[in-house]
Every structure is written in C-alpha cells, then in structure tokens.
Amino acid sequence: MATMQIIGAVVTLPIAPYVMDRFARRAPIFFGSLIIISGAVLQGAANNMGMFLAARGLLGFGGGHTALACPALVGV
Length: 76
Description:
The protein is mainly alpha-helical and 76 residues long. It has one domain. 84% of the residues lie in helices and 0% in strands. The chain contains four helices and no strands. Helix 1 crosses helix 4 (49-75). It is elongated, with a radius of gyration of 13 Å.
C-alpha cells in the first residue's frame, strides 16, 4: 500500500524529462500539482482498496513531475 506512491513516481521518470524539455518547467509543475490534487481528492473519497491504490499512484505520478521540474526551475 505504501509503495504504490513510489511506483507512480518511478513511472514518471522516463516521461517527465521529455515533458519538461517540450513545455519548459512551469507547465509540468502546474499539471503535476493538479494531478496531486486530484489524487488527494480521490484518496479522500476512496470506497475500496482499488480506488485508494489508484489515488496513491496518482499522487506519486504528480509528485514525480513536480519533484523533477522544481529544482531545475529554482536553479535557473
């Protein structure tokens, strides 16, 4: 249950660099934050374990995008 968030972040690793190169840094941070918010809403409204795990995966996916894009934006 706890590793689902890590799996979502690992899925982001091959995708996020291409998204950041294509759309700069602000857009991936914005959309990653939206994904995190939707995952938090889904996790709060989860009725069963499948919904809860999907929400944890969304949290990891959005967190991976923001974690990879934020240091590059701050360092510029």
